[in-house]
């Protein structure tokens, strides 16, 4: 009886522990007895540990042109083999949050992240580790990254953007850790975005050379195509109507200068407002975007219709004066060039007293 309990008590305890969470510590401490978590697997063999990574994207946050950044909500998973843990259990052991501190895990971070929870302690984020009897370890982490993304807005809003995430170990160089993608594609849970259409992802792995060593990285590049609908409704259609509206002046009475000017200037201001409100949400890039060209062309049309009003008004004014003049010089031939020069002079007010002199002569 004594020996029976001695032999079977640990086994019973072990079995009980798989059912209840309360005595997890005991399994953990027996499981990790003699395990040095500071040392990576295969350290003694002298070959680097290969970490097979994959990414599941739950959804994309807003892609912000103004700050050139975007947000990704995802699960980053890493698989590797720790031969020191092989054959210790007959079943897969899954540990979570703070218990993960008992096992060696790699330290990936996102190179182009502006904000990220990747380097936060496992106790504070969603994370889990599954250890197979063979010693294969799967480490999954809920990762939220606000990453930088350089955008070329030359063909905005008909543009496509490619934004990447680059992962690599912070402390281990290629001598210790090699990252590889354990997938050919990235699964994306929610592809729906308000302004963009998700076009797929490309995976690549590389080695970056720093002064302090070579580091293995894995990169995923997401492609997004902008939906033009918003800009059709907000900019293109209103802009077309404003330009068409500016043509109303051509049907207005040529002497009604006040109203013609008012309409012309209002349409110019509307286009300026469209241009300003649109560029308010975009970075202050030094090149014109496709939409800028479009709005500048519209602006030119509206401006030219206003110029036309001015020209008609001025010519009309001086034509009236010329009529007077022709009346007084009815027997003298007035050449066309002379007529035009008097018109221009009349317009800028040089020969205001012409009428008077004519009156004097008659
Ligand atoms: C695993 O199972 C085998 C037989 O199925 C047994 O011989 C071995 O002792 C078990 N190992 C552990 C760690 O439970
Ligand atoms: C890093 O890589 C370069 C070439 O890719 C190589 O010349 C260099 O020796 C490597 N450095 C280390 C520390 O491995
Ligand atoms: C696509 C791919 O390579 N998947 C592999 C990821 O890693 C697991 C475990 O090593 C393999 O079973 C998959 O085939």
From TrEMBL:
- Transmembrane spans: 228-250, 262-282, 294-317
State the family named in the UniProt similarity comment for this chain: Belongs to the ligand-gated ion channel (TC 1.A.9) family.
Q: Which keywords belong to this entry?
A: Cell membrane, Ion channel, Ion transport, Membrane, Receptor, Signal, Transmembrane, Transmembrane helix, Transport
Q: Which residues form the signal peptide?
A: 1-23
Q: What is this protein called?
A: Gamma-aminobutyric acid receptor subunit alpha-4
Ranges in coiled-coil conformation: none
Membrane topology term: Multi-pass membrane protein
A Gene Ontology molecular function term for this protein is: extracellular ligand-gated monoatomic ion channel activity
Residues annotated as domain Neurotransmitter-gated ion-channel ligand-binding: 26-201
Which cellular component terms (GO) are annotated to the entry?
plasma membrane
Q: What is its main location?
A: membrane
Under the heading NCBIfam families, the entry gives:
LIC
Tell me which species this is from.
Answer: Desmophyllum pertusum
């Amino acid at each position: 009886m004594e020996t029976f309990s001695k032999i079977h008590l640990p086994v019973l305890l072990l079995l009980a522990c798989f059912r209840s969470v309360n005595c997890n510590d005991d399994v953990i401490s027996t499981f990790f007895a003699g395990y040095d978590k500071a040392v990576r697997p295969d350290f003694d063999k002298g070959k680097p540990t290969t970490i097979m990574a994959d990414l599941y994207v739950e959804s994309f946050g807003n892609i912000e042109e103004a700050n050139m950044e975007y947000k990704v909500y995802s699960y980053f998973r890493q698989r590797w083999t720790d031969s020191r843990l092989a054959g210790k259990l007959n079943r897969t052991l899954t540990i979570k949050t703070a218990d993960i501190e008992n096992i060696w895990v790699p330290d990936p971070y996102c190179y182009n992240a502006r904000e990220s929870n990747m380097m936060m302690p496992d106790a504070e984020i969603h994370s889990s580790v599954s250890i197979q009897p063979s010693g294969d370890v799967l480490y999954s982490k809920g990762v939220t990254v606000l990453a930088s993304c350089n955008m070329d807005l030359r063909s905005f809003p008909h543009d496509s953007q490619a934004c990447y995430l680059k992962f690599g170990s912070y402390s281990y160089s290629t001598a210790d850790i090699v990252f590889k993608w354990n997938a050919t594609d990235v699964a994306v849970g929610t592809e729906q975005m308000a302004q963009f259409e998700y076009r797929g992802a490309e995976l690549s792995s590389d080695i970056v050379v720093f002064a302090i060593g070579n580091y293995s990285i894995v990169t995923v590049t997401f492609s997004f195509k902008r939906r033009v609908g918003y800009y059709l409704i907000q900019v293109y259609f209103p802009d077309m109507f404003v330009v068409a509206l500016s043509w109303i002046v051509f049907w207005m009475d040529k002497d009604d200068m006040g109203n013609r000017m008012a309409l012309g200037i209002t349409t110019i201001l509307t286009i300026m407002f469209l241009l300003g409100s649109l560029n308010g949400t975009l970075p202050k890039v030094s090149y014109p975007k496709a939409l800028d060209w479009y709005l500048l062309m519209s602006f030119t049309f509206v401006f030219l219709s206003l110029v036309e009003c001015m020209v008609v008004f001025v010519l009309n004014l001086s034509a009236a004066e010329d009529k007077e003049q022709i009346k007084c010089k009815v027997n003298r031939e007035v050449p066309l060039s002379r007529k035009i020069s008097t018109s221009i002079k009349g317009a800028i007010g040089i020969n205001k007293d012409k009428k008077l002199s004519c009156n004097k002569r008659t």
